[in-house]
Design a protein that fits this description.
This protein has 206 residues and is of the alpha+beta class. It contains 6 helices and 6 strands.
Length: 206
């Protein structure tokens, strides 16, 4: 009986020493990233044109590509489309672009627009163009071609900025003699030191 009392005392002692189990701190779950909203499907030609031009102004070239027709995507891959817009934007020193659509022509399914580029060197350049559209599965798409970047641009041509240095005007006096003129000028300069061989020759002659 003594060992039973000793065993019962040990059990009671262990029960008295052991406290309630600690509740684990919950670990917060990582935030779920917000899904990227898909490009809205234009139901009118004006909607497609405005969405295309808005994405162009914001430099969202991949979103512009989503609005292209099936035929345009077949001839121009996405990476080539994005790379060409990016290279032209950087190559001409474009600092800002604004594009404004006009009223669509229902007979031709084209939306006229005007684009103004602000260039770091040349200032603002404005050009008029028109977006051709086609309807695919109840949605209007841009029948894109390279001439929508610049009028006259083709798939094989390039855009290059060439500075044109202006020629200074001539200034004449009343006798038509030039006071300030253009042309080549012959410049002669005297060296402050003689070459070593000329110095030796001069000493021998003396």
């Amino acid at each position: 009986m003594a060992w039973r009392h000793a065993l019962l005392g040990c059990v009671l002692l262990l029960a008295a020493c052991s406290g309630p189990e600690a509740t684990p701190t919950p670990v917060p779950a990582p935030p779920t990233p917000a899904p990227v909203p898909p490009t809205p499907v234009p139901t009118r030609p004006e909607d497609a044109a405005n969405a295309f031009l808005t994405a162009w102004q914001q430099g969202q070239y991949s979103a512009m590509y989503d609005l292209l027709s099936t035929g345009a995507k077949a001839t121009t891959p996405r990476d080539l489309f994005v790379r060409r817009y990016t290279n032209i934007h950087d190559g001409i020193g474009e600092t800002k672009l604004t594009a404004q659509a006009a009223v669509a022509d229902p007979s031709t399914h084209k939306v006229p627009f005007q684009v103004t580029r602000s260039l770091a060197v040349y200032g603002d350049i404005t050009e008029s163009n028109a977006l051709p559209l086609v309807q695919e599965r109840n949605a209007w798409k841009i029948d894109w071609q390279p001439s929508l970047i610049f009028t006259g641009l083709t798939a094989t041509s390039t855009v290059r900025v060439t500075p044109d240095v202006p020629v200074r005007g001539r200034i004449l006096d009343r006798s038509d003699k030039p006071l300030a003129d253009n042309g080549a000028i012959l410049v002669q300069a005297a060296h402050s030191r003689w070459p070593a061989d000329l110095v030796h020759a001069h000493r021998r002659a003396a």
